[in-house]
Specification:
233 residues, mainly alpha, 80% helix
Length: 233
């Protein structure tokens, strides 16, 4: 119990930890609002206000986050020209998303012209969706490389030169790291696909992507995948 509490404290000390928690509030309240809208209008309005408040809070809390992309490219530009290219495109899309999200937030709270909200939402969502596409491609390439490396390691037969006790422990540890990395990247892919669906609802509104259930489930998949990735090990 104490270990769980300690991990929760560490999780909530992170910017992303708080964001995933508030995102959970936002999309749970969206689903509840949809569910009780016709049967309990008063309760539905309460959950609608909670949803809107959570969404605006997340935007305020993400102020300045577009600079994260610059720092990521500076620290880890990519190991190969292909990954550097994908990293630039992915982080550029994310930077556009977070930068214009500032103006979307200011327009929705009435600080600047409210008429700008639709345009800012489109630009932000367009950059966001492009970023997700390249993040997903990068993750799938790394997952594929990890599977190939895992197969090579598994083909090493007991008794071969590489299977003395120390080498075998090293091999098992490498396999463990490959599997753990694959799980994390699959969680990232799940979150990016879910957020991509949410972005499409802003870019090209339609009955499916804009339905409360589609948005609610996508938001929770994104939130809980991010929760898993950020939870202290």
């Amino acid at each position: 119990m104490n270990d769980t509490v300690d991990k929760l404290v560490v999780f909530l000390a992170k910017r992303d930890g708080i964001d995933k928690l508030v995102k959970t509030f936002q999309y749970v309240s969206k689903l509840v609002h949809w569910h009780v809208e016709t049967t309990q209008p008063d309760m539905a309005q309460r959950f609608k206000r909670w949803e809107v408040s959570s969404g605006l809070s997340r935007k305020a809390f993400r102020t300045g986050r577009f600079l994260t992309g610059f720092n990521t490219l500076r620290r880890n530009p990519g190991s190969t020209p292909t990954f550097r290219f994908l990293a630039v495109l992915a982080n550029a899309g994310e930077m556009v998303y977070f930068f214009f999200d500032h103006f979307l937030w200011l327009s929705r709270i009435g600080f600047i012209d409210a008429g700008l909200a639709k345009k800012m939402s489109f630009i932000s969502a367009f950059g966001e969706s492009l970023g997700y596409v390249f993040f997903i491609i990068s993750d799938f390439i790394i997952i594929k490389e990890g599977i190939e490396a895992q197969r090579r390691l598994l083909l090493q037969l007991p008794g071969s030169e590489g299977s003395i006790p120390d080498k075998e422990m090293e091999r098992q540890e490498t396999l463990r790291k490959i599997r753990a990395d694959r799980v994390m990247r699959l969680m990232a892919v799940a979150a990016n696909v879910a957020d991509f669906i949410i972005a499409l609802a802003d870019i090209e509104p339609n009955p499916f992507f804009n339905h409360a259930v589609t948005l609610g489930i996508s938001g929770l998949v994104s939130a809980w995948s991010g929760w898993y990735r950020n939870w202290p090990s």
